[in-house]
């Protein structure tokens, strides 16, 4: 018969082998592919405040590189457990261009609207036809925090410069945005089978199913 101290030791060793109840050690890696011919890099003409804005800004609405599509928001739906923690995000205005062009932030996050430009901007965010924020930004260096409490796709425009456009997707679960080559990664996922919803501003939605292992990465390819 073993002594109690030995039994405790054995139990501790066994528990160490078990994953914690809500382990989130899984990951989803993926690539967003664009099947058509890559569009040529386009520029949007600047017809106002050219001394501050330049003659044109890049058109970021369809960016393809090496067959990969950038600026696609990937959301993993149906993940159990707590929602992602709110973050402090930023939306800059730099040479009359929003940076970043597309971002995803957890609901409840605060986004600082920033102007780096010596011209008046008026930043106007919409979900559908409802205004989320409408903020005049007359001063360079100005920083105005906005809390994003409603999930959805916020389209951002500048009322002064009609070429300026950005998208802020306010998400309720894990999400990522595809990078320049179409790659993305969503980390800290518990094991399970999930629906992945991809969204692109011009090409719309794609849906895929994935099964994330308890420890390791699932991979998925999203095709447009
Ligand atoms: Cu502007």
Describe the structure.
The chain is mainly beta. It has a single domain, classed as Immunoglobulin-like (Sandwich), CATH 2.60.40.420. Helices cover 8% and strands 52% of the residues. The protein has 2 helices and 20 strands. The protein has helices at residues 4-17, 50-53; strands spanning 25-33, 43-45, 56-58, 64-65, 68-69, 73-77, 88-93, 98-99, 102-106, 109-115, 121-127, 130-137, 143-148, 152-158, 165-171, 175-177, 183-189, 192-200, 204-212, 215-223. The strands form 6 sheets. Strands 9-15-14-11-12 form a 5-stranded mixed beta sheet, with no helix packed on it. β11 (121-127) and β12 (130-137) form a beta hairpin. The longest helix has 14 residues, at 4-17. The protein is globular. The chain starts with a helix and ends with a strand. The chain binds copper (II) ion.
